[in-house]
Structure formats: C-alpha cells, structure tokens
Amino acid sequence: MPLPPGTPDLEVLDLLTSVAELGSLGAAARRHGITQPAASMRITALERRLRLRLLDRGPTGSVLTESGRAVVAHAAPILAAAQAFSDGIATLRAADRPRLRIAASKTIADHRMSQWLAALRADRPEVIVTLEVGNSRQVETWVRQSEADLGFVEGPHPPTELASRVLGADDLVVVVGASHRWARRRRPITVAELAGTPLLWRESGSGTRDTVWEILGAEAEPAQPAAELGSAAAILATARTGIAPAVLSRLIAAPDLDAGTLLEIPLADAVLTRKFRAVWRRQSPPADPGELLVRYAERFET
C-alpha cells in the first residue's frame, strides 16, 4: 500500500532523533556528517511537511518542543524496524556470498598460500575464504571428513582415498649450524651417511618427514631422531645451535642459508624433493572458486 501523503524520510527522522539524544543541533549535524546549516534546513523542511514546530531555536542553541519530543517517540519503532531491515539484508548478502574452506600444510600456508589467495581475491573478491593449517596428514583428514573443501599438502605420494593434482615440486636441503662438524667437510655426504645420522625430524604426519624417511629408508633404516619437533621454526632454531643436521624445504631454509646461520651440505647420490598437491574428496571435485584457486597454484608453481 502507498505511504500516506507527507510521510517523512527516515534520514531526517534519524537526524531529529540525534538532536534529542545529543541535545544539540550542531552535535547531531556532526554525527550525520553534514553542516549545522544543512541540518537546520532539513529540520525546517520536516516541520513544514508535518506542519508542526519541532525545535525552539535560540541564540544559545536549539531545544525540541513538546511536539518534537512526540515525533521522536513515534519515530523510534520506525527507525528500529529500519535498522532490523538493514541488518537482515546484510545477513542475507553474507549468506549468499560464495565460501571456500581450505586447509594447507604448514610449509604451503607459510610460503605459498598468500600468493595464491591474493590472486584469487583479485579475481573473485566476493569469495569468503577460511584456512586451517596443520601437517599434511592432518590436512588429508580434514578433507576426508568434509571439514575442508580443498586441501594442499606435500609429500612423496598422493594420499589414499582422495583425488589429487600435482602443483609443483619443492627441493629439500640438508643443513647444519656453523658449529657442527659437517660444516667443515669438503665432500658431499651420501644417503647412507645421512640415514645413519641422528637428525632433527618433524613430527609424524609431516610431508617433509614422510619424503625424507622414504628416501633414506630405501638405503638403510634411519637412525633414531636427535629430536622430533613440531614446527619448521623449532627445527631451524635447533639446527642453528649445531646439535644435529636437519632436512628442510629450501623455501624455509633460504633466509638462514643467505645469512650464513645455516650451511647447506650437498648430497652425493640422491635428489631430495617432494611434490605439492591439491587434494579433494573424489565425490566433490573442486568447482569455482576452488578450481580457480588450484589453477592459480599451478601457475605459480610452474
């Protein structure tokens, strides 16, 4: 049904309510981002439309009349309903925005994901992305259990029960602190030597650990770890002390190698590398925007 003739707009009712709340036409004008003369003109126009005097204007300021206070009281439920309407529309818009739940291994999350997500956001800014970070085994579990739509892992083999796509490869390097005895050796180490040396290992479930363990295990049973640490940062800090060697992603070790706080030890008879993969449930292949994110990841890794 059409509105009754003379119905004021909500903005001027909100302005009048602000005068009542703040006790000043000037303060109300500042709240609404307009000048005091502009605010006065709008209230005057409202008075003409309603044919009521709403403000007593004097040299010391403006005060609501009895009619003005009554109009503010009548406006309160209207303005509340308008706010509820606005909040409801905002909720609908948020619910209607596409969402993408992803999970990533720590290396990928720390050293690759920001580039991939920046590319996705530039193309699809409306997408709401949530990211969980864990080791590769945890990421695979989250994807299997539908807690993530798409996962990014590293390791020597594709995970079982999940579909996957290779995005690229990541080099692994053997590193030691400057005080370790290997820092003074002149020849590369062999896989057999590395396997027989207690190393600083990531925790079980890490893609780095699985890759290195498989390569060393093909030569000999790996020695008991010097320590098992739950993050690359902890391994870096421990390796710097020279306690034991570590095998890390070159992405992670690069700042220390550049600074000389870690030294790379060449490997004589093997190349240490692992693959980055996108993984998903076979029955739920990635669609836009997940497929778009995978394509950006492939582009950056090739």
Automatic annotation (TrEMBL):
<dbReference type="InterPro" id="IPR005119">
    <property type="entry name" value="LysR_subst-bd"/>
</dbReference>
<keyword id="KW-0804">Transcription</keyword>
<keyword id="KW-0805">Transcription regulation</keyword>
<dbReference type="InterPro" id="IPR000847">
    <property type="entry name" value="LysR_HTH_N"/>
</dbReference>
<dbReference type="Pfam" id="PF00126">
    <property type="entry name" value="HTH_1"/>
</dbReference>
<dbReference type="InterPro" id="IPR036388">
    <property type="entry name" value="WH-like_DNA-bd_sf"/>
</dbReference>
<protein>
    <submittedName>
        <fullName>LysR family transcriptional regulator</fullName>
    </submittedName>
</protein>
<dbReference type="Pfam" id="PF03466">
    <property type="entry name" value="LysR_substrate"/>
</dbReference>
<feature type="domain" description="HTH lysR-type">
    <location>
        <begin position="8"/>
        <end position="65"/>
    </location>
</feature>
<comment type="similarity">
    <text>Belongs to the LysR transcriptional regulatory family.</text>
</comment>
<dbReference type="InterPro" id="IPR036390">
    <property type="entry name" value="WH_DNA-bd_sf"/>
</dbReference>
<keyword id="KW-0238">DNA-binding</keyword>
